[in-house]
Amino acid sequence: MQVQALGTRHRRRPLLNDVLMVVGGVLLAYGGWQGLAALQDRWAVEAARTAVRAEMVTDLDRIAYRLSAQPCITRRLDQVAGLLSDGAVVPRGLRIGVPGDTGLEDDQWQESVNSGAASRQGDADQMAQSFFYTSAHALDAYAHEEFQTWTRLRTLEKGPPDPATRRTLQQALATARGDAAAYESLARDTLAQARAYGLTPDATRLQGIANTTCRPLR
Length: 218
Fold this sequence. Notes:
mainly alpha
């Protein structure tokens, strides 16, 4: 009986070793899978961060371009104000021009937010990107309204307005001034924050709808 019991214990040891090896292998594989998954997640987050920063640079170039035209826009609005003043003569051949349109993009940002990659970035990245795109949406709205307002102002190119049209254009002028001032203020803050985030814009980037207010009025 003693010999039989010893034999049974000897047979159990290889079985126990096999079980331990299998369990250890499973745990090792699981740990490796977890590590690979974590590494892939970091890659995905970094890829999203890189894509968002590249998109931000494109948008910043457009904002800087639009901001560089601010002196011409202000001067042209002053000229329009003179043309709309009482008793002013509106000559033929005017070219009011357009302030341009930034046409900001946010596809990469939206994709990053929807995938959850944005929320897995560091605090500094999240704060900088959130501020930028919030500002960019506001700037895009200002630019869009400004572009529509200037379309009304360009009716001066058709000739002297009647009294009712003159009043309408004076209201449009006030709106254009407000949009230009709001755009300038927010754009400067946005560019300053972007520089603090390590992004430097290039104002020489040409827009889809370029500014033409620096050209002569006639």
